[in-house]
Amino acid sequence: MDNLMSEGLSLMVFGMGFVFVFLTLLVFATGFMSKVIAKVVPEAPPQPARPAAPAAAPAPAGGDELIAVMTAAVHQYRKN
C-alpha cells in the first residue's frame, strides 16, 4: 500500500510539474510573438471619429400590446 501511495505522489508531482513548465513556456512564447508581431506589422493609423448615432426612436404606440403578446407566448411555452 505504501508503494502505491509513493507512486501516485510521484506521478502527481511529475504531472503538475509538466503542466507548470508548459504553461510557463507558453507565457514566454506568447510574449515573444507579441513583440515580434508589433515590430513586423506597423500599427494601423487611427480611424477618423464617426458622428454620434442618432437617438433611439421612441417605442411605437402599440408597445403595450406587443409586450402582452410576448408574455402570453412565454407563458404558453413554459406550460408545455
Order of helices and strands: HH
Number of helices: 2
Helix content: over 70%
- N- and C-termini, Cα separation: 56 Å
Structural class: mainly alpha
Q: Give the overall pLDDT as a whole number.
A: 86
Which stretches are poorly predicted, pLDDT < 50 over at least 5 residues?
A: none
Tell the overall outline: flat
What Rg, in angstroms, do the CA atoms define? Answer: 30 Å
Task: Report the portion of residues in β strands.
Answer: under 5%
Largest sheet: none
Compute the number of strand runs: 0
Membrane topology: Single-pass membrane protein
Function: Catalyzes the decarboxylation of oxaloacetate coupled to Na(+) translocation.
InterPro entries: Na_pump_deCOase, OadG
Cofactor: Na(+)
Summarize the entry for a quick read.
InterPro entries: Na_pump_deCOase, OadG. With 80 residues, the chain is mainly α.
Describe this structure in words.
It is built from 2 helices and no strands. The chain has a domain at 1-42. The longest helix is centred in the first third of the chain and has 39 residues, at 2-40. The chain has 80 residues and is mainly alpha-helical. It has helices at residues 2-40, 63-79. It is a single-pass membrane protein. Heterotrimer of an alpha, a beta and a gamma subunit. It comes from Amphritea balenae. It is found in: Cell membrane.
